[in-house]
Amino acid sequence: MNILVLNTGSSSLKFQIIETDCDMIENHTDKILAKGVIERIGNQAELQFSAPGHPKKIYSKFLRGHKAAIEEIINWITSDESIIDGISSLKDIHAVGHRTVHGAEEFKGSVKVTPEMITKIEECTELAPLHNPANLKGIRAVNETFGENFPQVAVFDTSFHTTMPQVAYIYGIPYKYYEQYKVRRYGFHGTSHRYILQRYCALKNIPIEEGDIISLHLGNGCSAAAIKNGKSIDTTMGMTPLEGLVMGTRCGDIDPSLIEFIAHKENITLEAVYEILNKESGVKGISGVSNDMRDIEAEIAKGNQRADLAMQVFSYRIKKYVGAYLAAMNGAKAIIFTGGIGENGPHSRNIILDNMSFFGIELDQKLNEEITKGKEGIISTPNSKIEVWVIPTNEELVIARDTYQIINNKC
Ligand code: ADP
User: N or C: which end of the chain has fewer CB within 10 A?
Assistant: First the structure.
């Protein structure tokens, strides 16, 4: 079955077409048939499409909205120039899977999209005002281009964390705000953490219920998840993705009092402070250089001390959460790095896990240097009490598999 996986942002759309079925899922042989990115929708958009064995197609075109973007994808995949294996017409796309950001307490797993589900996703919008409306645009655009009854599945970033116990998700504020407004910790990146769990268990040949891991998703957004007996019991992002680790541009955990303090000192609105905390903070804010770890590393090599400080603060926060989760879980079998920095950053991996012999964690320096650029493998020594792995994430694959299983009621 060929699944179109869509990750829709307010002005962007990323897609993959993945062939999957029960047998492929079992044997980890699911195939990516094509992928692409469309940016600046609503403007002169930039489009990049690629399929194995074909040159990348890069061009620019005015696209009024998400429907026009999806039509552009359809035109490409059904045109002679792409010749994607097994796809010659729209009929060869069998279902669409959507990355959907916030499912609140409502969605404990992925669901088939129906008018009733669309209403429920709209109801979660208050908690994710930037993301859910964009995801809904993608769902509606598919309705308009593929037809009302075309099978679609929504896969939520929050679902994996709905197993968190109250002790991990209740904030230390009046309980009535949870009861009245559902103010609580939800967690995000759930699809990535779930992939890491599934892949680790497959590599170790153990059932999911034996997955006791700390998953570190370190990309532009960063989060850690404590996964015990195959279930998320805690994670660093909270009611919004601003909480927890220090990220590319987000501040992570801070003293809430500083929000009013900065607003007062700078004579700016609360909204302006949140904009700073979301877009001008984290590694970018500390270093004054960039939110991109490659730039930070280049600056460190030149002796830039603020860049070095940003790297140290970024890594120290992760180290503290690793310690906290080892306490919350009473130990773990593995710590797993993923995301752009987790997969490619031996330098930060080293700082994060340096000097943790108390926990019996020992990195193999050579393996740590070697495992980058999409490679998967163990980077701890045989003596390490807790294994350390690098596993490249694959959220699209999880979305394709969920879509297949829900549409077919299988596996
Ligand atoms: P997103 O969260 O948007 O999916 P990614 O998972 O692609 O982002 O991660 C982006 C981050 O990965 C950036 O900070 C980037 O600098 C970092 N990164 C990518 N390649 C490398 C590398 N070779 N060394 C260090 N960091 C890298």
Answer: C
